[in-house]
Amino acid sequence: MSDNGHNTKTIELPASISVRDLAQNIDASPIEVIKTLMANGVMANINQLIDYDTAAIVAAEMGYEATPEVPEESAEADGGEIPLWRQVIAGEDTSKLTNRPPVITILGHVDHGKTTLLDAIRHTNVVEGEAGGITQHIGAYQAEHNGRVITFLDTPGHAAFTAMRARGAQGADIVVLVVAADDGVMPQTREAIAHAKAAQVPILVALNKIDKPNADPDRVKQQLAEVGLVPDEWDGDTILVPISAKKKMGLDDLLEAILLVSDNTQILANPEGRVIGTVIEAEIDRSKGVLATLLVQNGTLNVGDVVVVGNSHGRLRAMFDYHGRQIKRAGPSTPVSVMGLNEVPQAGDLFQVVDSDREARAIVQERQATKQVEAEATKDAVSLEQLFDRFQAGELKELRLIVKADVQGSLEPIVSSLKDIKTGDIGINILYSETGNIGENDVMLASASKAIVIGFNVQADAAARRLAESEGISIRLYDIIYRLTEDIEKALKGMLEPELRKKVIGHALVQAVFRISKFGNIAGCRVTDGEIRRNAQIRVIRDDEAIFEGSIGSLKHHQDDVREVRQGFECGILAKGFDDFEENDVLECFIIEKVPMM
Ligand code: GDP
After folding, report:
1. Segment 135-142 mean pLDDT
2. Does the Cβ of 51 fall within 6 Å of ligand 1?
3. How far apart are CA 109 and CA 16, in angstroms?
4. Atom 25 (ligand 1) nearest CA
């Protein structure tokens, strides 16, 4: 009990924790945590790991007193969160379970040799392809030792992999922790250990760079013992293999040790069971469309299967292995690159196979609905349109901007003309201005500081747009400076109208006109393209000329009132304030939508 803080709650924190997890533990939103970090001079995104000391400062500002978590307890006490794919395997009929290749992730401090090690194993031990062992980079590959297969996740440092790195150990069965013998245990080494422990994944140490003259294996072993990894030669239970990734020394020993650890860990799956796995990486390929690397963790994935992952879904049109060869099926622990998803999924997301396209769409719709509800709940971000109201209400005292432009030469005039805007009581605060496209980090910081992101001759990348949508952040893109300053000026004066545009959604051809005295004339139509919606507007076009524009009074299909009628179907349309339909009139149906700001 602390005797100074009567209201202070206590919290145990691990050696490192992601911003997201910290926020959850101290009942704060990730944005609040990011803001507090910013106030303390630390720029971090939601998936970034922060160390204990930093986390403790943030926790203190939120009224929590932090104490270091005892690692052994944490692993057992809450059991960590068991990943869904492991739960699926645990739920399988045990008589159906068979051994599958272990999945290895290589973690460690920067420059300790992770990439070199992955390349060394790839070149010496990769399972040969018929065409001669030229591997494709799909984010994972398989190596062979003594006739047994080992799957390696192969994307350290990959940008899209950050999300998964935080959960990195969860997709893997064994963590190979690379520690440079000349440098020892460093902050990211500790982070990796914390992750592996949280995910309850066994750790095997590759003591790298033993070829270096200043390598000091004993000192490193001592440091490892201090963080709870006692080497087996000191009667501990951590296997430690000295290697040189650069000189390709000790690689066989390392693979041998990996198989030894696998034999002591139950690495099982049901190849006939429910199909589930993890997205390793994903991208859009110009000719192939969405390409995603999936690691199958249970069941067998087949070409033609319908897959759902996050908000993305689709029927798999083709699958490729890491040699780039087309394959038809992929069993447990196999990484495959697949074609056929409709959107780029996120690395680290779980995928599953469902029975039909319809089921896939239903799942995605439900997910989107849930997300929208969540987004509504977090809507305290600013949009340029609502700014004035919020100034008036005294909620905002200044307009904060993040400005991105293509070149330095355009940044300067933009910044100076923004500063010239006469704003009355309200200040314009440019948080920062930089050259380059708008990325996720810009949006994250905009969200944290309630700012608007302005782009001049630049694009917002896909991740930035996704985040902006979910956080309700405005991204405004311009290619003419005065339009930019004009918009800002208008926003400050409360004059900015949301930009609206008409979007045509369908056409119908009038085939007959029914005269019903009580309500007026009904146009009997066939929808020629798109759809007609009850709550949309119509334009009546005769001889290429629009003779009426207004709303629909009623829309019927046979005798029933309906909300929409699609291409190829017949319908009866009654317009509000228009009666003069003639055969062969074209009815153009349109909606009015806000122009997306991106
Ligand atoms: P990563 O950041 O962990 O992926 O580290 P890298 O694989 O990029 O390696 C960082 C540097 O260490 C590179 O210059 C490598 O050539 C070097 N390096 C990696 N392994 C060894 C090794 O076993 N011996 C020596 N002498 N250098 C190594």
Report:
1. 80
2. no
3. 14
4. 209
